[in-house]
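#struct-help
A.M.: can someone run this one for me? Single chain, 445 residues.
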Amino acid sequence: MKKKIVLAYSGGLDTTVIIPWLKENYDCDIIAVCVDVGQAADWKAIGKRAMETGAAACYVADVKKEYVEEYIWPALKANAVYEDKYLLGTSTARPLIAKVLVEYARKEKASAIAHGATGKGNDQVRFDLGIMALAPDLEIIAPWRIWKLKSREDEMRYLARRKLPVPMKKKNSYSMDDNIWHISHEGLELEDPAAEPLYRKMLAITVTPERAPNKSEYVEIEFEKGIPVSVNNKKMEGAELIKYLNKIGGAHGIGIADLVENRVVGMKSRGVYETPGGSILYYAHQELEHICLDRQTYAFKQQAAQKMGELIYGGLWFTPLREALSAFVDSTQKTVSGKVRLKLYKGSISAAGVSSPNSLYNASIASFTTGDLYNHADAKGFIRLYGLPVLVRSLMEQSKKGGAKALAAAAAAASGKSAAKPARKSAASKGAAPVKAAPGRPKKK
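D.P.: on it. Structure tokens below:
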């Protein structure tokens, strides 16, 4: 029986080349597995291409629902962002794809899993770590790390020599990854950080802000325990909700990010990301948290969000720390329910109102009108204790500059007392009798 290799198959240039390359170099049967996480794809045509280039079988696994509920929502609830801009569209999908590949490898009794990630990219880390975590016994084959092909042009020539169809043209050769959450673009002019992106040529689901309507649009999103459940009072499942917001946000130029980021493998790379629906949801979710979470929880959650973003970006989804952070995040989301109204206008998002049955905003305390729950006089003692470290340091500085007298004066001033003793009152001021002239001395006239 021939060896079986499960291949993560997208139908793009890399994986189209990998099928014949694996057959030539491993003498094996290739089981192509397409993982549908919401990318724009003609799966029937892609499956046909896989078979025409030598696959023994091709499967399509529709995991959009699982992707949204088990991977996107945890990232959203955490407010996980990488390097302030990237909403982790590719990063959240890779661990799920690795999980599906392992499932098919077990089903087909394959001995190896292959993927088309390059030796310079992040995806090789994400795929490898996912497979290692779930199936450490399976061999991992990454052709880009071992074959002699050096470029996309080499790949095109490889297919042409074998009279196999080339699924792309050089002039359109942005490296793209898309799913229900986002679209990423790399390559061509983006490889020069000084060059402005050719957005009109590149963008797929978003218009530039300049081309967005001159009229703003309002959108209201309802959350239940941190998860969006409706838009404009219409209940929706996760995948449908994201698609709807992608359409609205894309039309208003929302969610375009141009980022020079730090890859896991150590180099910097530049990418342009389209995440219109995701940008709206992140903004709305954070606005809701502002009124539902107390200060300590919100502050610590900000730290957890950064770490969560780093873990997801680095392919460390199936790790104890990521799972523990998700458990913490889920605990914080118990009260994050309510509605957020946003205004969309030419690439910008602004808050237009937020409400929650669990809101910690109390008008009787926050209002400029004095209420029963807040006594202004309490502020003095609070500020004194809160600022005690500032005061102590200041006193120390005063003693170094002016000695004991200056220290005493500063300490007295800080305590609200005067350092100088009050002047003694004169006898006249006390109502005493006038002082008489000494006897024998002449009186002045």
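A.M.: thanks! The chain has a mean pLDDT of 92.
D.P.: also worth noting: The CA atoms of residues 148 and 154 lie 9 Å apart.
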